[in-house]
Amino acid sequence: MHHSPPQVVSGMKYVITVEMARTSCRKGDVEKVCTVHEDPQLAAPYLCTFHVWSQPWLNEISVTKQECHH
Q1: Per-position pLDDT tens, the chain of length 70
Q2: What is the CATH number of domain 12-69?
Q3: pTM
Q4: 66: how many CB neighbours lie within 10 A of its CB?
């Protein structure tokens, strides 16, 4: 590296990795306990990484990047 300009950072960046799988519940069924699909192809888990930018003093939070893989 020849030159790296300084950066002014005003917030927190979080990198969150989660394992997710499909269920038979609909999005509006938040009150239910949802089990993973019985069909093995539909039940295959995803590994997802989310980059989240937070500036709590501005009451702002946003997902800046997301990637999911089987």
Answers
A1: 455 565 557 888 889 999 998 888 887 777 678 888 888 888 899 999 999 999 988 999 999 999 999 8
A2: 3.10.450.10
A3: 0.69
A4: 11
